[in-house]
Amino acid sequence: MSSLNEPRWLDQDEMAAWRGFVVASNLLNRRLERQLKEDSGLSHQQYEILVHLSAAPGDSLRMTELADKLVTSKSGLTYQVTQLERTGLVARRSCPSDVRGVIAELTDQGREMLRQAAPGHVALVRELLIDVLTREQLAVLAEGLGAVSARLRQDETP
Amino acid sequence: MSSLNEPRWLDQDEMAAWRGFVVASNLLNRRLERQLKEDSGLSHQQYEILVHLSAAPGDSLRMTELADKLVTSKSGLTYQVTQLERTGLVARRSCPSDVRGVIAELTDQGREMLRQAAPGHVALVRELLIDVLTREQLAVLAEGLGAVSARLRQDETP
DNA sequence: ACACCTTCGTTCGAATTTGAACAACAGGAG
DNA sequence: CTCCTGTTGTTCAAATTCGAACGAAGGTGT
Question: What's the CA B84/C1' C23 distance, rounded, in angstroms?
Fold first, then answer.
């Protein structure tokens, strides 16, 4: 009757979830971008690079690993790391075990910048997302989106 | 002791929710972008313009309204509408009640393009997001992210 | 009618992002 | 060792994004 050639459209709840996701995502990125830029002169992407590096052993990661964590293209990362290198927040090292490899490493200046930028950023994330949700909503969101991410990750690497 | 100058950092659950949101958002956008481009030659943004126009009375919206719905900058919308106008999917009309106003209207060709692109897009959204979540997770997500969006919206327009 | 502040959409330059193409290298099968 | 395939990071051109500045017009109060 209706589902031979017709796709399964989204019902009201499904559409609400999907729209909510898209809209919240866009609005949130917009706000965070502005705040970081004004507060520390960093883009969200640059901030995340610093975060991931500081969380890694030795405050350093290979370019490809970093690109995976950031969910960005390799060329995009090359650009941003170059920018961060110019401002002295990140340094490039060559990889001992692989001649092709390039390791991005957080500098002291980068660590300091992160220390200065993090509080304001976290406060805003809290204000706009975390504190708006209940504990239960947070748990469900973490679990659900974790599953979605996992699904997407394994889908990319067959 | 610890919270005089120190911000309230994110605990494990909060961090999981936040990271999940960021990662899922990036991965999802990436996938959808690729699929739409390959399948119909549209960017996600362009697709959303068509969707919002087709959902509006008269298949048309004023530029500012459209920009709000899309959560994008005015200049960004100007660019994209120009692109869509070039390919004949959208047309610009002048607003009867306001000389300054510009109305973007879906053309027959645009309607047809949407009809052709929608099934694949919806199917992918379903596969990567909707069908990965349970009914309860979907409901919580819709409600929670709805609240977040509302919070962000009213925060922008004081 | 007048000044004043806001809104509308566009233009402009700068910054960023992406995928494809590339050269150099790694790793394994034979 | 030698070929072959996959990886790594960069470069390049093209596309997109944004904010600020702009001219033009709306709307309000006086």
Answer: 38
- Asked if B152 and A9 come within 8 Å (Cβ–Cβ), the reply is no
- Per residue in A52-84, pLDDT (tens digit) is 999 999 999 999 999 999 999 999 999 999 999
pLDDT digits (tens, 9 = 90+) for A115-136: 999 999 999 999 999 999 999 9
Q: How many CB pairs under 8 A join A and B?
A: 178
Q: Are A27 and B149 in contact (CB under 8 A)?
A: yes
- Residue A94 reports pLDDT greater than 60: yes
CA of B97 to C1' of D27 (A): 14
Query: Which of the four pLDDT bands, split at 50, 70 and 90, describes residue A156?
Result: confident
- Within an 8 Å CB–CB cutoff, is residue B1 touching chain A? no
Query: CA A82 to CA A99: how far, in whole Å?
Result: 19
Test the A interface: residue of B25, B47, B54, B68 with most A CBs within 10 Å: B25
CB-CB neighbors (< 8 A) of A137 in chain B: 140, 143-144
pLDDT band at B6 (very low <50, low <70, confident <90, very high): confident
Q: How does DSSP classify residue B61?
A: E
- Phi first, then psi, for residue B108 (nearest 5°) are -60, -40
Instruction: Decide: A49 and A85 in contact? Cβ < 8 Å.
Output: no
Which amino acid is located at B78 in the chain? T
Q: Is the C-beta of residue B87 closer than 7 Å to nucleic acid chain D? A: no
How much is the pLDDT for B96? 94
β-bridge partners, A91: A105
pLDDT of res. A7: 81
pTM reported for the whole predicted model? 0.94
For residue B33, list its beta bridge partners: none
Distances (CA, A) of B112 to A12, B29, B51, B116, B130: 24, 24, 12, 6, 26
Q: Taking a C-beta distance cutoff of 8 angstroms, is the pair B62, B100 a contact?
A: no
